[in-house]
Specification:
This protein is of the alpha+beta class and 413 residues long. It folds into two domains: 208 residues, no CATH class; 192 residues, no CATH class. The protein contains twelve helices and twelve strands. The strands form two sheets. Strands 2-3-10-5-7-6 form a six-stranded mixed β-barrel. Strands 8-9 form a two-stranded antiparallel ribbon. α1 crosses α10, α2 runs antiparallel to α11 and α10 runs antiparallel to α11.
Length: 413
Amino acid sequence: MRVQDTFVMAFKALKDRKLRSALTILGIVIGTSLIVALVASTTGLTASITTQISKMGVTTLSVTPMNQRVRIVDEDVVKLQSMDYVREVIPYYSSRLQINYGPTTLSVQVTGLDQNLLSTLYQSLELDRGSFTDMYDPTGVVIGSSIARPPEPDYPSVDVNELLILQASSTARTRPTYAYLIRGVLKPFGSSGFANIDESIFISPLGARLTLKLTTYSGIYVIADSPEGVSFVQAALQEYFGTNARIMGAQAMLETVQSITGQLTLFLGGIAAISLFVAGIGTTNTMFVSIMERTREIGVMRAIGYTSGNILVLFLTEATVSGIVGGFLGTISGILLSFILSGNLTSINLGGSAGRGSPAMGMGGSAMSFHPAITLQLVIFSLLFPIGIAVLAGLYPAWRASKLNIVTALKYE
């Protein structure tokens, strides 16, 4: 029997039982689409977080106080700078303020640090126009590209040499207002760690002390001189601050995120695979019912010369066709579903509270943005795995069909 004849007969058999075939294929489509969507989404999320954390460099450590008893001052900066394996110490002030656009507010993180070290802290960060704020300029600021040109049409754009009005985020009726002069605008950079640089404002340390009335540093970035020295620096920092400070390394954070998302991928992918195996059981059940209905037809086919092998191949081909159609449709729908999932997940806030109608911004939190990772390996797997499940599910029913007794089959009613 020719191969094309086998596929034509398999398609005809599936077409004659439209509803049952459609339900069987639907189960395969659901399982396949879940595998593609979940694996692509979690892989894309992992890649996005990895890229963001990597922008800060694997040798960077972040030190933030855990309680009010820790007061980081200039003396601490000097002592940390003298530690072995330390290349740079960057203290910073941090405060959350708001930009008011009529009834809508944007919550932003204002960070005061030596702006000559921004490119050291955030690799490849550059100015688009203007200049960095001088160390002794209390009112100049450098803003991210999204603040200069907000994506929302109702928010006015600002530029170099224009005033930027900020207001305290407190719930008090009378809130302090701060006016700053924009000195520079950064090029689009994206997120680094959990900080969205495009939606951040940087002022000088003097400006943070004078205008924001901050007397102690909010935290310190410590940069080791090599990846090998990170563990020594982290141990020294832990000994210096004890349990009163949280010490986080970019590399450790990256490994933790990759571990969590990797386990999440396996867990969700396993659930999707189970649903596909359930669809395979449905395929087996459908084929058994089909064999019972077609017992007399099988007897006629055997009587006119079809061998047991021909019958086996015919029924396996029906299962294979179901797997091919289900795998193809499931892959397409899974790709579409992965983009829908990533679109919903971009609204996740990874930090502090935001103003009404706006995402959280700055070093305190940012909206996660990523694209699903649709790889060639995933597409090939999503096409071949359902076919394998369908063939395995149809193997025993096909074997049973091929072993039917001719006389018994012809007498079957």
